[in-house]
Design goal:
With 153 residues, the chain is mainly beta. It has one helix at residues 27-40; strands at residues 44-47, 54-55, 71-74, 78-89, 95-107, 110-116, 128-133, 146-151. It has a single domain (27-151), classed as Nucleic acid-binding proteins (OB fold (Dihydrolipoamide Acetyltransferase, E2P)). A 5-stranded antiparallel β-sheet has the order 6-5-4-7-8, with no helix packed on it. Strands 2-1-3 form a 3-stranded antiparallel β-sheet, covered by helices on one side.
């Protein structure tokens, strides 16, 4: 029987709780990316030796040529601001007491979207932005191990 064919003996409805469990994983490249961020305080990328692209956050395969990416590089904690915006509402649509800044900070041929701590009147596209990390003892292995980005000195 194919997936499109229906088993005539299958129940038409399921009563009660559905016994399904799942666990989200970062994948192999994501695991190494976040573990290195947590343990060493480094932002890592993977390099495609075929295309010459550097992926941040790191990926396992090149999106252009599908080559396996095995070369890892430390791209540093300073990237370039590509765009930013002010948020006046939270993710649920509720007004914020104070507007927040979020920006895309480029590293290599990719980048990270994250919170910015800066005077919006002094920000401009191309400005160098530095990641501010949580203390090592408080890092958990997530993107929130970066507290925010601030203008680099």
């Amino acid at each position: 029987m194919t997936l499109l064919e229906r088993d005539p003996q299958a129940p038409t409805a399921w009563r009660g709780n559905l016994p399904v469990t799942s666990r989200y994983t970062y994948g192999l490249a994501g695991e190494k990316f976040f573990r290195t961020l947590k343990d060493e305080g480094k932002i890592m990328g993977t390099v495609c030796n075929n295309c010459g692209r550097t992926y941040v956050p790191a990926t396992a395969f090149c999106e252009r040529c599908l080559s396996e990416l095995t070369e890892w590089v430390d791209v540093g904690l300073v990237g370039e601001l590509h765009t930013f915006t002010r948020l006046f509402v939270d993710y649920d649509g509720n007004p914020l007491d104070e507007p927040e800044l979020v920006g895309f900070i480029g590293f290599g041929d990719g980048g990270l979207i994250h919170k910015l701590e800066a005077d919006p009147d002094t920000l401009e596209i191309g400005k160098k932005m530095e990641a501010v990390l949580k203390p090592k003892s408080k890092r958990t292995g997530s993107i929130l191990d970066i507290e925010h980005f601030k203008p680099a000195k």
